[in-house]
Amino acid sequence: MFESIARLPGYQFIKAMLFGVMLVSVKKLLIAALCAIPALIHLPAHAQVTPQSSSTTHLRWVVNMPNAQSADMLNKLQAVLGVPVKMVRPLLQPNSYLIEMQRLPVLGSLQGTQAIASVLNALPGVNFASPDIQLKRAAVPAPSDTRYAANQASYLHNGAYASLRMQDVWAQTRGSSSVVIAVLDSGVLFDNPELKGRLLPGYDFVSQVTPPTGNREAGPLLDSGSNDGNGRDPDPSDPGDAPPNGTTCPDGSNTSSWHGTTVASVAAAQSNNGQFIAGMDWNAKILPVRVSGRCGIASSSDIVDAFYWATGSGRVDPSIGVNPNPANVINLSFATDTPLLGGGCSVADPVALAIADARARNVSVVVSAGNNSGGAVQYPANCAGSIAAGAAQQNGQLATYTAKGTSNGFLTLHAPGNANGFYAAVSNTGSSTPQANGTALQLVAGTSFSAPMVAGAISLLKAVRPDLTPAQIENLLRNNALAYPANADFGTSIFRPTRRNCTAFSCGAGLLNPLGTLNAVRALSNALPVANVPQSAVVGNNGPFVIDAGLSSNSTGGAGNLTYRWQQVFGQPVVLAGIDSDTLQVQSGLAGNIAEFALTVTDTSINRIHTSVVRLVGNGVNERMFAPSAAVGESNSDGVAAAPVASASQGGGGGALGLYGLLALWAGLGLWRSSQAGLKGA
């Protein structure tokens, strides 16, 4: 049949015409494709292409490239990725840079985070490349409750297996205001009465400004960011992390969490003041470092910068300045599953390197283990050197929501809550923005609040032995942890949830045991006496005010052979009496003042000393603006106290900001929501 058609008159002409048309079409297609390639490669930044896999593939990366010139590095990255790349900023971590692809690669095999990581890490001169991971809070909602005894039953010695026995701990030490706990979180409410007298000025490290509309941003990121109308500045107060009206966060919430305030209160709330709760440490200062904004999303690059600033390490950004109050303990209540390495943490991960740097500077790092209902410890608690904090019930069984497990690289402990793992903390009644006088007591659950329990316990140890290293602290916590009881582990069968025994690696090192660990510290060689000062306080008048340190003890835990010496180490001068006794009388000078007093006790039988510091804050003083004190005297490894440093005239009722503070304020005047992989506040 086809042969008959081929012999028809005009067939060969028609065949030739069709062939010619086909050639022309192919030629046009080739020309069009060749013309499109430059457009694909050089697409301008404003013409964003939204990747189909934005929830799993990252546009922002941290690249560590020593001796890199910015333009040269970007050229190399663009050449291997085939898309425009811009510099976002250098991090405070030496040789690390935050870069952003203007869109995901569309040619070749670079489809996915793992493929991009392989290409970037193979580049000559690159030490490591890691995605800028988004972390989220992971608090479990819980009802409000105002009964102290019920809310903090785990603190009491009430026969519960997992009791913290904090009354026995506080009889030995209530901490020292020379110890600083950096809380990397959503910021704090400076007018919260449970945090007054505890707070240092801090800093806001949330770099991405949140669009005010609530609409999707250009590119793959949802509208996360600062939620306070600006980027980085010296004000770490919490504006609220609620999404815009009519929208919800990825976790389904639509109100503010006040997460940072809640976390800080667990570690160091004002105590023994007849209201709300008692903090783990009655004297430690809280350094609020804001890393999360709308919906609780924080980026790993902001967290890295916050780590280096909090420890006083890394590159100095003149617009931020140097932190005058380096942290002794860092608390990070965020967790997520990472897109690389099966959820693990590489030794070359930027956050892992920040943790290692902190440990090298004698700073312990506590991270929430995660709320993945029995899954493995999440990032970055699974980074080497972390202390991963999980949650347990009062009977010692693991809370059903907690992560678990351990390794040789990190230590896992579980801190007890009340029944079913609930914790008492303070919050605010504001649904979006802070409510004036809106402080409220709340029952909360989640490993977000296990972490500050562990951090507070560590700060108490540092008050007794300031020379303890992170490695020593981890060994003490591990060796003195309470063993998990029978059937503590939580698993599931085909039919129903089941309980089973913990193994050496399935759960962790055990339950947090502050009293046993403290006793072990006191039993170390070359034991020191302990200057046990009462809690730092907010003072409502000019004086008099009495500070009774009668619970101080000698190196064996007794009260004999002790001498006392008080000295004001910060603030506008006050009138004192009893400087050589266990009771200091501050007769006047407290109005509008922030004053700190160092007590040095000497065990005359062994001629060894110990110094601790208490802080009095005049009611109404703005703690966001006062000039913090210099380092005060504390015992070194030989038990000899460095001389306390008296403050300059910058103390007291507000004080001067100093050069770095002014630079930071000038710069200021000038995580929780993302379609990427998320770290959740635990």
Structure explained in plain terms:
With 682 residues, the chain is of the alpha/beta class. It has 13 helices and 27 strands. The chain has helices at residues 2-6, 11-41, 70-81, 113-121, 148-151, 166-172, 259-268, 300-311, 350-360, 450-464, 470-479, 514-522, 658-669; strands at 60-64, 85-90, 96-101, 128-131, 134-135, 180-185, 203-204, 285-290, 298-299, 329-332, 335-336, 364-368, 387-392, 411-416, 422-428, 439-445, 489-492, 497-500, 510-511, 537-539, 545-548, 562-570, 575-577, 583-588, 594-603, 608-618, 678-680. The strands form seven sheets. Strands 7-8-6-10-12-13-14-19 form an eight-stranded parallel β-sheet, sandwiched between helices. A hairpin with a 5-residue loop joins strand 2 and strand 3 (96-101). Helix 7 (259-268) packs parallel to helix 10 (450-464). The chain is globular. Mean pLDDT is 80; it is low at 1-55, 140-148, 213-221 and 628-680.
